[in-house]
Write a structure and sequence with these properties.
The structure is a single chain. By secondary structure, this protein is of the alpha/beta class. The protein has a domain at about 115-360. It has helices at about 5-15, 25-40, 60-75, 80-85, 150-170, 170-175, 180-185, 190-200; strands at about 130, 135-140, 225, 230-240, 245-260, 270-285, 300-305, 335, 350, 360. A hairpin with a 5-residue loop joins strand 4 (about 230-240) and strand 5 (about 245-260). The chain starts with a helix and ends with a strand.
């Protein structure tokens, strides 16, 4: 130790180091003791250690609990939560819409009026957030109904959806080919339907009652072609016990087909969305009551509502109105093709748009 450090040590020993604890005098300790006795607090030694009290974090616990509850609500009731923030608005590129498990109360919310393109054929449409193909058709849980047990009902529901897929999503049928797979699911002993099929698929000039579009989605390949491989869908199946113990399945599904002129191939080619809503009632009959074949269904009724599918006499194919985007529309007959809150007329073999050729408020 150097002489300077030794001198500093001696001085601090005599005078006390800076910041060192100083023991209170006897008088100070006596005054403090009397004050504590008057306040009812127990005496505390001057060297006694008093640990700091931990701070309560009640705010964090409450916030965490609220977050957990919110996540549970969103997970259990997604459609209701969407409704709190503007309804089933098909957010045009946001999170996919929840599957439709019940009839919506109102039409999807309006988004930016953007025209579709070859790269984004569903741009500016509620269908942008819908599911692709068969995934957009909700199938309910199966329970024993009529003459069928739960397993048979589940099979009937699955095959009912298969019929919709074969009639409205099969790429070959969309190109105008014969809907072989869909026909195979129809009861061959249902005389009126078999007659409709023969007439509808062979006539060069179908009528309103024999138009194949009542059941099948078809485009003339020399007029238009589908943009990409995706058709957007939204809808559901429901079922109940029908006549003579049959299981009656009702389908209510909207299909959105983006198409472009067959002759155009440039990046700026026009894209039109043909929107078709179908309502089909199918009966899975008890073979002890009705003549049928295993794995086939009977049609009770079928109807469609379409926009951008043609306004002239039936041709058996959808005819998209290419080049008509800027033409004036009939304000007296405007409909929202995405509004699924209103029931569709299911009268046998009808086209609900009829001769009015309503204009779409959006597509």
């Amino acid at each position: 130790m150097s002489e300077e450090e030794w001198d500093r040590f001696l001085r601090e020993t005599v005078t006390g180091a800076a910041g060192a604890p100083v023991e209170p005098s006897a008088r100070a300790r006596e005054v403090e003791r009397r004050l504590r006795e008057r306040s009812g607090q127990p005496p505390e030694g001057w060297r006694t250690y008093a640990p700091a009290r931990p701070r309560r974090r009640t705010g964090w616990y409450v916030t965490g609990m609220i977050a957990v509850v919110a996540l549970l609500v969103v997970g259990l009731f997604p459609e209701q939560v969407v409704g709190w923030f503007g309804g089933d608005d098909g957010g045009r590129g946001g999170a996919p819409s929840a599957a439709e498990s019940q009839s919506p109360r109102k039409a999807p919310g309006a988004g930016p009026a953007l025209r579709p393109t070859l790269a984004e054929p569903f741009r500016g449409s509620p269908a942008a957030d819908w599911a692709d193909g068969a995934a957009g058709i909700t199938v309910p849980p199966a329970e024993a109904t009529g003459w069928m047990d739960a397993a048979q009902v589940e099979r009937a529901l699955r095959q009912s959806r298969d019929f919709l897929v074969a009639a409205g999503l099969d790429s070959r049928v969309l190109r105008g080919e014969r809907p072989t797979e869909a026909i195979a699911l129809l009861n061959p002993h249902q005389a009126d339907i078999q007659e409709y099929l023969r007439t509808a698929l062979s006539s060069a000039a179908p009528t309103d009652k024999t138009d194949p579009l009542l059941l099948f989605s078809r485009f003339r390949p020399d007029q238009s072609r589908l943009v990409g491989d995706v058709v957007k869908t939204r809808g559901r199946l429901t079922y109940r016990e029908g006549k003579q113990g049959a299981v009656e399945v009702t389908a209510d599904v909207t299909f959105v087909y983006p198409v472009t002129p067959a002759a155009e191939g440039g990046q700026d080619a026009e894209v039109v969305r043909t929107i078709v809503r179908r309502a089909v009632v199918m009966s899975w009959d008890d073979p002890a009551e009705v003549v049928t074949e295993p794995g086939t269904l009977s049609l009770v009724s079928y109807a469609l509502d379409m926009t951008n599918g043609g306004c002239s006499a039936p041709t058996g194919y959808f005819v998209p109105p290419f080049g008509a985007a800027d033409e004036p529309v009939d304000e007296a007959h405007r409909i929202d093709p995405y509004d699924r809150s209103k029931p569709l007329d299911t009268g046998n073999g009808t086209t609900s748009t009829g001769d009015s050729c309503a204009s779409a408020t959006r597509s």
